[in-house]
Write a structure and sequence with these properties.
It is built from twelve helices and 14 strands. The chain is α/β, with parallel strands linked by helices and 379 residues long. Helix content is 45%, strand content 19%. The protein has two domains: 19-144 and 287-354, Rossmann fold (3-Layer(aba) Sandwich); 146-277, 3-Layer(aba) Sandwich (Rossmann fold). The longest helix is centred in the first third of the chain and has 21 residues, at 2-22. It is globular. Strand 13 (366-371) and strand 14 form a beta hairpin. The strands form four sheets. A five-stranded parallel sheet has the order 2-1-3-4-5, with helices on both faces. It has a four-stranded parallel sheet with strand order 7-6-8-9, with helices on both faces. A three-stranded antiparallel sheet has the order 10-13-14.
Length: 379
């Protein structure tokens, strides 16, 4: 009986410490992504991934001994709505906002959050001006930039496909136009001679590309580059309709626009397309990374699916922010931003990572094709 009382007393004391630790105010983290519309499914997945990482961090003691609380909002892929959601986050007193599926939305939110002194981390949006410092002097981005991606696609066109007739089907906004410009600039840097035989532009919400693809087909390209960030609707439709139109040559999807969900929706039409990306959960060096393995297992436990690149980037954004905060023992926006920008972090979902001084995460791209509905690495 005496031993039982001692054990019970120790348990009460332990529970008291645990309850006391979590009795402190939570650290609020704002999450702003599209949760509805064409990009809604992907935005929901990224938000869920951030919830997954919050659970892992909370299991390990939280941030500064406090529990992370995620506050997620829908930007509806619309800049004005994104600004409204950013103001909501400011009013909620969040310590950081993780955002960014559509570059125009990110660019609209940046100055709002910067003026309020809220740290703003872009997880996905790719436009190069995001890191210009104009909207956010402490900008940080996890996803690869248009410039990094452009180099990968240009190298494929010039050195692998050796294509001389190139067509573009491009989303007509900051992301799409920037991505195409980066590819063309990198081709110029390679001193590669080619002819741009077709160029079709479309809005983010478009789902019918039959006329555009008919025009492209008539130009007889050797390579067609599709730049479409609407992975819930636009990109799968582009892939299916390109196959239906019997478009000739090699079909290339812009870097980071072909998640497994896109292949699932596009079906057999995706077979043979070429693209590249920076994360695959079951490909080295990620497959043997113990931190990634825990993240994948927790994602499967909580949400019943395996995370893709976008989910890994969202989770990594929260993880790296939490690592910086716990190391510095402060939530101060400027101090944390300076630790991340130009800094190195070991043991993340993405492995050991380094940020450029301008806040851009350095990325290693892996070229792939789709075969029998599955992503296959290019040799």
């Amino acid at each position: 009986m005496k031993q039982f009382r001692q054990w019970a007393s120790a348990l009460v004391v332990g529970l008291g410490f645990a309850i006391g630790a979590w009795a402190q105010p939570t650290v609020k983290v704002g999450v702003i992504f599209p949760l509805s519309g064409g990009a809604g499914p992907q935005g929901q997945h990224v938000s869920n991934a951030i919830q997954t990482m919050a659970a892992l961090i909370n299991e390990s003691g939280g941030v500064l001994g406090r529990k992370i609380e995620i506050i997620a909002r829908d930007d509806e892929s619309t800049p004005a709505v994104g600004v409204s959601r950013a103001n909501e986050m400011i009013a909620q007193g969040v310590s950081v906002v993780i955002e960014g599926w559509n570059s125009p939305v990110t660019l609209a939110m940046q100055p709002v959050l910067a003026r309020a002194g809220v740290l703003d981390i872009t997880a996905i949006s790719k436009a190069d001006p995001i890191l210009s410092g104009e909207g956010n002097p402490f900008a940080i981005r996890l996803n690869s930039s248009n410039s990094q991606d452009g180099s990968v696609i240009a190298n494929y066109i010039a050195n692998i496909a050796k294509a001389k007739r190139v067509a573009f089907v491009t989303q007509n906004d900051a992301y799409g136009n920037g991505a195409q410009a980066s590819i063309e600039l990198e081709l110029k840097k390679l001193n590669y001679s080619y002819e741009k035989v077709a160029e079709e532009k479309f809005p983010f919400t478009q789902a019918d590309f039959r006329v555009a693809l008919t025009n492209v087909k008539a130009a007889n390209p050797e390579v067609t580059v599709a730049i479409n960030a609407n992975e819930g609707l636009g990109m799968p439709a582009t892939i299916r309709q390109a196959r239906q139109s019997r478009l000739g040559g090699v079909f290339i999807a812009a870097v980071g626009t072909v998640a497994p969900s896109v292949i699932q929706v596009a079906g057999d039409a995706a077979n043979g397309l070429i693209s590249a990306d920076i994360y695959f959960p079951d490909v080295e060096p990620f497959a043997s990374n113990p931190v990634n393995k825990r993240f994948v297992a927790k994602s499967q436990e909580m949400f019943k699916y395996t995370p893709d690149k976008f989910m890994a980037l969202g989770a990594s954004a929260l993880q790296i922010w939490a690592m910086a905060v716990n190391e510095l023992k402060t939530l101060d926006r400027e101090a944390v931003a300076k630790r991340i920008r130009g800094g190195q972090f070991k043991g993340t979902v993405m492995g050991d990572v380094t940020f450029e001084p301008n806040g851009q995460l350095r990325s290693n791209h892996l070229l792939f094709t789709v075969q029998a509905g599955k992503i296959t690495m290019q040799k």
